Amino acid sequence: MDYSYPFSIDWTTDEIVDVVEFFQAIEDAYEKGIKREELMDKYRKFKKVVPSMAEEKNYFREFEEESSYVSYAVIKRMKEASGDELIRIKKS
Fold first, then answer.
1. Residue 2, class by beta-carbon neighbours within 10 Å (0-12 exposed, 13-18 middle, 19+ buried)?
2. pLDDT for position 44
3. Are 21 and 43 spatial neighbours (Cβ–Cβ below 8 Å)?
4. What is each CA distance from 77 to 6, 52, 57, 74, in whole angstroms?
5. Which residue from 13, 21, 31, 60 puts its CA 20 to 30 A from 45's CA?
């Protein structure tokens, strides 16, 4: 991993941790898979920090530019899944 995670200097330490953990969950979805419920928990915490869809899109875009991981694809798959299904995305 040779990139940084997007965040705002206005966030508290706890908020930064929640956002970083969310983006690490996105990485997990590509690298090894992550249980849907765990991902949902991390996404809920992320949304408490970043409630605006416009801001979410900006952070997703920043993260994709840095890492090449597409957060939107993971969240879409999570919403389509059910129960505690394993979310795993194949990188194209």
1. exposed
2. 98
3. no
4. 22, 20, 16, 5
5. 31
